[in-house]
Amino acid sequence: MAIPLGPDTEHFATADTRNEAALALAPLPSARPDDGMMEPGVIEPGRALALADFSPPQVSAGERLMRLAYRFGVGPRTLNPFAKRAAPRLTATVANPLPGDPSTGTALRAGHFVLHGLKAPIADIEFSGPRLAPPLERLVHGFSWLADLEACAARVQCSGVAERILSRWLTANPRPDGTPAWDVGNVAHRLLGWLIHAPLVLSSQDRKFRNHALHAFDSTAGWLDRNVGRAEDKLSEVAGWVAITAAGLLLANGGARRLYGEAGLIHALGDLVGDDGGVLSRSPVCQIEAIELLVRLKACYSAVRAEAPPQIDTILSVLVPPLLAVLHGDGALSGWQGAPAITAARIQALVRASGVRTRPLRDARQWGYQRVAAQRSILLFDSAPPPVSRHARDGCASTLAFEFSHGPERIIVNCGGGACAGGLIPLRLAQGLRATAAHSTLTIDDFNSTAVLINGKLGTGVSEVDIDRRTLAGDGPGTGATRLEASHNGYVARYGLNHRRILILRDDGTELRGEDSLVPSGRKGKRGTIAVVLRFHLGPHIELAQGRDGMGVTLALPDGSLWQFRSGRDPVTVEESLWADGQGRPVATRQLVITAKVSRSGETFSWLLKKMR
What we know:
The protein is an alpha+beta fold. A 9-stranded antiparallel sheet has the order 1-9-10-11-12-19-16-15-14. It has a domain at 61-76 and 93-309: Glycosyltransferase, CATH 1.50.10.100. It is 33% helix and 21% strand. The protein has helices spanning 7-18, 61-71, 76-79, 102-109, 134-142, 145-152, 155-172, 184-196, 198-201, 207-227, 234-250, 255-272, 284-303, 310-325, 344-354, 427-432, 492-495; strands at residues 41-42, 112-115, 118-121, 369-374, 377-382, 402-406, 409-413, 442-444, 465-472, 481-488, 497-506, 511-520, 529-538, 543-546, 552-556, 562-567, 572-580, 586-599, 603-611. Helix 5 runs parallel beside helix 8 (184-196), helix 8 packs across helix 10 (207-227) and helix 10 crosses helix 11 (234-250). It is elongated and about 80 Å long. The longest helix is centred in the middle third of the chain and has 21 residues, at 207-227.
């Protein structure tokens, strides 16, 4: 719809046209000591984290010997020669701590897997053979759908579906053969799902099928014992150790396996998690998966009335605050490293199940996301290099991108969705959603600040990011501000230019001022011209009206509030964009784009986002 410029907006536009450099802002607090105000100071981290203890759990000398023997392949029967030989059996039933999605379970009963909004007929799924899209592989071979099926109806109505799919899968995969079904991460999630949802897949009156399934449980656990060290990434290795530990708890004669799994798990978690609690892939989706794995493992301990190692609770308490730090005011996830806007309900259920009660991290240097909360506004800023290739799962070139929300409304976002390939987002599009241009930041000549490779990996590019966070004092309530300044070297090798971004958010949350600068680094930045594009992807359902001078755009949010975006140097245009919602489905939206041809000697672009009265 067309939005007329009201009196306040007209005055704002006119003032900006007269003084583009200053952007006609009411003066923000100054750092000058002669203005009678306090000098800004560097903010300390928002939460002091206790270092997690990643040493193996304390056990007796006999248990240490048993764990060592099991590590070298000495089986339970050798360790206890007087034990009676028995068929595989489960020792307890686990109460699932993380219920699935009932609507997805209903679709399963109707004959369809559901992946990010796309229905895939179960009858058409190849349970062995060539690779599928990674999310679909994890769904099919990881049996994560069991939770959804369990949530949709009584067990007697669902068990037949679970048994039929399990039977087809076992027939298609009689033995390990190097196909995606036998990737360590898929095997780990599959075994953990079988153990937790055993009543769903073992309710058959067919004794032969039940014995076949139980032998599959046992042989899969044995395969993981031998192959967990070959995991494709650290998170998959952690999943493997979780499944080994759960098998040690829930399968008969599993004492030695449990000791072996606990020691391996604690060590692997130490390699997965950074100093401030963020996983080294820097992916909120991976952060969620790590928390889910530990929550499910704790449920296995509860099932056998055993105490989990204290390190697990400690690590959970370290993992949750960084996840909370990348949530918006609506409680849902922001779009970093390929993540869709996972819903607030799912996040709340996960945090509740973890038992951790804490506040979001504000300043996580290694996790890499700065969070500024100002009244109803939240600013999230990517202020760290992308993950290194060995840790990246759906790595994105998003350095110095930001997201901004006011109350429940998202105003500036990243596209997200790079981790949702195979659903309604096709593989080729998912590759593009990992690019710098899919994030709200600056690009030069449409090149990525870090090379985006296939299979979720990243190449060369940003290796250093400098970040400075300060508070600016004001002369009254709400007149102060938080200032973030960061720069990266992703364009130095090609163009000899550093990208520096300054963001200043007023304490009342109604004004966000930005400045993007290209700063020469050595001789390469002195000759020639380059095409610079600043992109600001918009949240869904925002109506736009361009200003008369082409330098600004008025934004009408779904809640009825009006905001205005102004450029201090070049015209603003509106282009199509998309955004991945909480189900990983693409939603059509738009982006504000500032385009300029500038010299390699450097340039500065200023802009303003302001709430209108």
